[in-house]
Amino acid sequence: MTSRIKQKFGQLAASGRKALVPFVTAGDPMLEATVPVMHALVGAGADVIELGVPFSDPMADGPSIQRSSERAIGRGAGLRYVLRCVAEFRKDDASTPVVLMGYLNPIEILGAQAFARDAAAAGVDGVLLVDLPPEEAGPTREAFNAAGIELISLAAPTTAPARLQRLARESQGYLYYVSFAGVTGGSQLDVADVLRRAGELRAMATVPVLVGFGIRDAASAGALAPAADGVVVGSALVDALAGSEGPEQAAARAAAFLAPLRAALDAAAG
After folding, report:
1. Are β-strands 150-155 and 175-178 bridged in parallel, bridged antiparallel, or unpaired?
2. Residues 61, 125, 150, 229: which is the catalytic one?
């Protein structure tokens, strides 16, 4: 059976389009907004949803996502809540891939096999664990794969060549290329350097390569579109949702934010 992720990227490649992958933190700006926001993002052109699992020490995330994670945890948004959101989303959307993005600790507490079983049952397609090095990923990947879940890998400008080749070889679903060395939400984006490095990675990788970190608007999304098979946008979207007064407003803000990025990617590809 072809995974949702592979099927989606196959459709995009066939139509010559770039993937648009928004990241939102589950439980922010409010618990009841997560699922409506996910649906609104798909309606505005999202191809894959990255759903952040709130964590108390998100070391790779910048201030915007750190604060969103803190707010979500304060509302009681844990791993079980996240899986319930995915299951609720799946009632009306059976095709859009959902990738959970977070850290290893909550999964270790539950156990990789138990988590994978529950995540697959909820409708999760992939998991990206920021703090799981490839050298230690084998058992986790095996547990995930047994449940039909793909382990997404991260690569960065500082990744050593040998490790980069390993990531390109072992990656599943797609490979997330961090556009600069730093935390999410930074602004030190060197477009020419990203275009070069991401192009080199695409030549090695056996899965699509997405570029993230530093993409804040339609202009940056369009500029980086030639570099990869798609882009990931997170911090700027999280900021756009902050302070929403109810799920309807949050969903409207999500759609309004994402639609110009979709248009920019389509224009760049065309």
Report:
1. parallel
2. 61
pLDDT digits (tens, 9 = 90+) for 168-201: 889 999 999 987 654 444 455 678 888 888 888 9
Q: Is the overall model pTM greater than 0.85, yes or no?
A: yes
The residues facing 209 across adjacent strands are: 175
**Backbone Cα Rg of the chain:** 17
CB–CB of 73/102 below 8 Å? no
Contact in structure between 82 and 118 (CB atoms under 8 Å):
no
Beta bridge partners of 155: 177
In terms of Cα–Cα distance, which of 17, 75, 20 is closest to 210? 20
> CA-CA distance, 67 to 97, in Å (whole number)?
26
Active site residue 32: no
How long a stretch of residues is the chain?
Answer: 270
- The active-site residue out of 28, 50, 150, 229 is 50
Q: Look at residues 60, 37, 96 and name the one whose alpha carbon lies nearest to residue 241.
A: 37
State CA 107 to chain mean position distance: 17
Distance CA 109, CA 97 (A): 25
